[in-house]
Amino acid sequence: MAASVSPLCGLEEDLTCSICLGVFEFPVTVPCGHSFCLSCLQQFWCGDRQFLLGFTCPQCRTAFTTKPELKKNNVLCTVVEEFLRSRNPPECSPEKQLQQPGDVACDSCPPRGNRATRTCLTCMASFCPNHLEPHQNSAAFQSHQLREPLRDLQERKCEEHSKILEFFCEEHSKCICSLCLLSHKLCRTASMEDTKKDKEVKGRKQYLIERLWKYN
């Protein structure tokens, strides 16, 4: 007898955030009707992008005169939960346990427990789908930053403030967190991602210069 197929199996594309391209986590809906993960939308609206473009829909670019009030889309959240239950194997199955060397363990499970699917940069901990539910369902966790699991989370933590190291100070040649920025206001700082890209560009330029000198 063929196994029954959940009617939700074909909904993954409709339940995907167009910013992170993953299934919605704490979905919120903006006035134009499009939905996104709360943390993705908050990150999209912060920094230089918001200063230059204002508050716009990341998908259709509709502009809002003021920042929309973001509330959890309870109906969509319920559909996402049902979809994940239909797609994910039971908790005891080996697929949810640690298997690969790069897998990150859930900090709320027993040792060698379930594999984490997200890391919270606010809690500084990683969670499996079951222990991630409070972040998805409780308003108290709305502002928490979620991202792909980080294996070396403790090594990325600022020793002074216990926050993630997100920036690089060129004057002191060290990685710093968002709170460290207050004491580095006069320094040249950049995000870790921008610093990495800049070093890659400089490395390629140096390689080309060496090649030119070699053949001249």
UniProtKB/TrEMBL annotation:
| Annotated ranges, domain B box-type | 153-185
Question: Matching SUPFAM superfamilies, A to Z?
Answer: B-box zinc-binding domain, RING/U-box
Xref: Pfam families: zf-B_box, zf-C3HC4_4
Provide the GO MF annotations for this entry: zinc ion binding
Q: Give every RING-type domain span.
A: 17-61
- Judging by the UniProt lineage, the source's domain of life is Eukaryota
- Which InterPro entries does the record associate with it? E3_ubiq-ligase_TRIM/RNF, Znf_B-box, Znf_RING, Znf_RING/FYVE/PHD, Znf_RING_CS
Tell me which UniProt keywords the record has, alphabetically: Metal-binding, Zinc, Zinc-finger
Q: Where are the transmembrane segments?
A: none
Q: Does the keyword Nuclease apply?
A: no
Against CDD domains, the record matches this protein to:
Bbox1_TRIM25-like_C-IV (cd19842), Bbox2_TRIM25_C-IV (cd19776)
Query: Which protein is depicted?
Result: E3 ubiquitin/ISG15 ligase TRIM25-like protein
What species is given as this protein's source? Answer: Callorhinchus milii
